[in-house]
Amino acid sequence: MRKAVVLLSGGLDSATCAAVAKDEGFELYALSFCYGQRHAVEIASARRVAQWLGAKAHHIAEVDLSAFGGALLDETSQVPKDRPPGPHTRTIPPTYVPARNTIFLSYALGWAEVLDASDIFIGVNAVDYSGYPDCRPEYIEAFQKMAALATKRAVEGNNIMIHTPLIGLSKADIIRLGMGLEIDYGITHSCYDPSVDGLACGRCDSCILRRRGFEEAGVVDPTRYQT
Fold first, then answer.
1. Are residues 124 and 141 in contact, defined by beta-carbon separation less than 8 angstroms?
2. Would 223 be classed as within a structural domain?
3. Rounded to whole angstroms, how far apart are CA atoms 68 and 24?
4. Average pLDDT, stretch 91-119?
């Protein structure tokens, strides 16, 4: 089987992306990050998803991004709540973590070289998302070009391909895709500001997009919300 490094946050999108990789016949090597995020409950979700998918290995990297700040890393900062869903052309929200996907993909690139894997899967989405610049197709294309220049595999003619199967899908389409792959979305977590016992707030961007996605897909939302 071909090996693939899959970035796995424990959220709905990354779980669906990993399931797509498995369905395409890849042997999964899941990579998650404990980077100081306030929603660290997602790590437990990532473990459950990796186990459910039968990942060959699951590595959780410790990366301290606290110096970069942002509402996801600072308990005293406010996570935006009750923003209307829709095209996010307004200011990038404070939940943005500078260079996060660049750091995560760089780790994935390094592990892929060690594993002699030719593929990386990441569940970025440029339709129903919070407006982060490192989720856009242009960013992925640029990183792919960098990977072709910066890796031993690529220089020797074996480029590492970055797959983004969800990048052009709505949240409802992602959920429909996942249901076709029989994903248990009850083991995933998406909330930016969960309670101490892991209940989703229901009001942050991620919760609103997730809830609307299930409604539009006509699928029962298994998420446990605070209200």
1. no
2. no
3. 36
4. 91
Amino acid at 14: S
| CB atoms inside a 10 Å sphere around CB 51 | 12
Is this model's pTM higher than 0.90 or not? Answer: yes
CATH number at residue 9: 3.40.50.620
pLDDT digits (tens, 9 = 90+) for 184-219: 999 999 998 898 888 999 999 899 999 999 999 999
- Record the tokens describing residue 105, joined without a space: 């993909």
CA 112 to chain centre: 18
For residue 197, give the 3-state DSSP assignment.
Answer: coil
Amino acid at site 25: G
pLDDT of residue 13: 96
Instruction: Indicate the pLDDT class of residue 93, thresholds 50, 70 and 90.
Output: confident
Under 8 Å CB-to-CB from 109, ≥6 apart: which residues?
A: 120, 147, 150, 151, 160
DSSP for 11-72, written as a single string: SHHHHHHHHHHHHTTPEEEEEEEESS-TTTHHHHHHHHHHHHHT-SEEEEEE---GGG--TT
For residue 152, give its domain range. 3-217
Quick one: what percent of the chain has pLDDT higher than 70? 92
